[in-house]
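Chains adopt folds. We examine one example:
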Amino acid sequence: MSDEDYVYDEESGEWLPASELAARRAAADAVEVRDAVGNLLADGDQVTLIKDLDVKGAGQTLKQGTLIKSIRLTGDPQEIDCRYPGIKGLVLRAEFVRKR
């Protein structure tokens, strides 16, 4: 038996080691972001656009097949934050991209 403290988990009604409970809560807080075909996205991934997108405020259209490098996940499972030359603060919907 380890010397670790046990904590009561109200959701399951069990006594669990503190480290296991912390790991469960971290996994529950993690947001799963999936692209148009169901691939799991992570920070730093490269994605390709699957359709032409008009960028509001930039007066520019991003064409199908455009490569977006180094995405960052937001707290929303449908939005990804990314950079593209000439466009600041670009946020794309995950349904319009495919992992490369």
Remarks:
- The radius of gyration is 19 Å.
